[in-house]
Amino acid sequence: MGEKYPIEYNWIRGVESLEEYRHGGYHPIMIGDLLCDRYRIADKLGFGGYSTVWLAEDTHVKQFVAVKLYKVYGEPETVPITRYDGKPLVPLNAPAKAVVPLFLGKYAEKFSLSDAHPLLSDFGEAFSPASEARFGKDCHTPPAFRAPETKFESQTPLAYPLDVWSLAIAIWEIIGMKSIFSTDYVDEDEIVSQHIDVLGPMPPGWWQRWGGRSRFFDEHGCPTESHRENRWPPLQESFEIGIQKWRKRVGDEMTENEKSAFLDLMRRMLQFRPEERLTAEEVLSSEWMVKWALPDYERSQKG
Fold this sequence. Notes:
about 300 residues, Transferase(Phosphotransferase), domain 1, two-stranded antiparallel sheet
């Protein structure tokens, strides 16, 4: 029987919350346990808020699930469980040992492009502007990736420049460690203020129509006192903070020539006016793509 009061256990790095081993919580499992007279526990794959997930052998067909991965990663790693108060473990609560989840992946810094197999999905949002009209008010692109015309020209049909803006944000995030605009849950007016902080003044007509402007800027375009403390850095400074600093740590910083070409590409893809942005063809023929991105991609394919 379990104890009347919750039991505290000594913390073990990388395993589930051991206090969840209780009546109505996690079921205690050990390596070698046989479930339903069929599934022999071999290792742990992970855990969540409501369950633990295990690698098991189906003894009826004499096969292990992901048996090759199990052999590669060796014997399961277990750590004895002890109570915080030093008392002996109570039967039917936590098991005698915690099992560290089996890591079947590969650390990001060891990935090359040839390792990646992206799955493309549009969640029903993709459409052809040539055959279907959608308007800015109907755009469901995440705010950090959403072009400003969706707000300021909400009754105008969307077109391909919208994708060029989103692509620039995605390239920035892939190349660096910090998004150029906030990916936190913030309202669209705050994202607009970040556009101005990073890219400079927006078109005058948009500026005059922006209802949330007074939260961030006065009538002369100067930041309010509260916004001054939370401004996002201009484009080049954002590059140094969000990209170059992290690349320096791993010895892969951009040269001055590449940096110049990259920032030029970002500026031309992130023009406020959609008609002033590069086309997809112009992006592919840009200096940064031709001299750095595409050669890197080709080298990775050979590796």
